[in-house]
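Appendix B. Chain record.
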Amino acid sequence: MIVAGFGYRAIATTDSLRDALKATGHEHPALLAAPADKAYAACIQQLAQELGLSVFPVAETLLRAMQTPTQSAMALEHRATGSVAEACALAAAGDTPVLLCDRVISHDHRATCAIARSSLA
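Structure tokens predicted for this chain:
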């Protein structure tokens, strides 16, 4: 299963998320993932509806547990993980996840997206 994990600012729009997803080159994931406290934001819910997908809410403890190749100072300060998008993608991909695309940043700098899949898939 291919998962698109997102990190985004409160001012992000659906266009911000769509742009970040497009930049990964994996525009047809099976699932979207976001931090639990942002998983019901209008921007990601609208993108999920457009794509016919669900949003997996990633608990804060799971975010912190994921080892990410990217180490963003802002993500470390605010979420205790190197990359929110990468951590969300990895957490939602299930057992033995593999990162297919490190986080990319939307053109408006409001959202990031990373792609992961279970290595069993």
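Further analysis of this model is presented in Appendix C.
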